[in-house]
Amino acid sequence: QVQLVQSGPEVKKPGASVKVSCKTSGYIFTTYGFTWVRQAPGQGLEWMGWISSYNGDTNSAQTFQGRVTLTTDTSTRTGYMELRNLKSDDTATYYCRVGAAAGEFDYWGHGTLVTVSS
Amino acid sequence: QSALTQPASVSGSHGQSITISCTGTSSDVGKYNLVSWYQQHPGKVPKLILYEVTKRPSGVSNRFSGSKSGNTASLTISGLQSEDEADYYCCSFVGRFSSLFGGGTKVTVL
Lengths: 118, 110
Description:
The complex is a heterodimer. Helices cover 0% and strands 51% of the residues of chain A. Chain A is mainly beta. The N and C termini of chain A lie far apart (40 Å). Chain B is globular. In chain B, strands 1, 3, 4, 7, 8 and 9 form a 6-stranded mixed sheet that branches. Chain B has a 3-stranded antiparallel sheet with strand order 2-6-5, with no helix packed on it. Chain B has strands at 9-12, 18-23, 35-40, 47-50, 64-69, 72-77, 86-95, 98-101, 105-109. In chain B, 36% of the residues are buried.
């Protein structure tokens, strides 16, 4: 079965960077890209970006451009999201998702809580 | 790009039907039949309940249905049940490998 296992919770200071990983299993890795979504406490879902696991094509929401880097490692079937220059309002649960832009194949990681606090 | 517009909350009695709207623009919801809906219970991971506007993943109740007219997509929940109490989010493809979520709608079952 398809599984997405994310890295553990992180506590960072303002200005620092965080890199969240999402290790996958149970499907052909290069078939589906990774979408990264975040959810601040008590708030809604926010689409952050997408990266192809096939050729590395990527795009990110304008809000994060210049601060976020999405990568994949085919050898370990893992996706990564790095967010730099963290601010307190980056405190959120960060989810990885695999699937097409819209389609029945839709699997999410359990989420990684990133807390930004001085 | 601003989030798609959803009502903050919708409520209904057991057994009733409710509809949640998701309004975008001619560049997103109106342009692509690639609208998905997610259900999220507190503390849980979002669950896909509709994709490509009207399609239900296997295992999702047929009480959930979707439609689209112009720049507005809609999710209808019929025969409202206690377990339907959750947050619901629409999500539309907007081109160039990008998608956009709605602000979310809290559904309360009275």
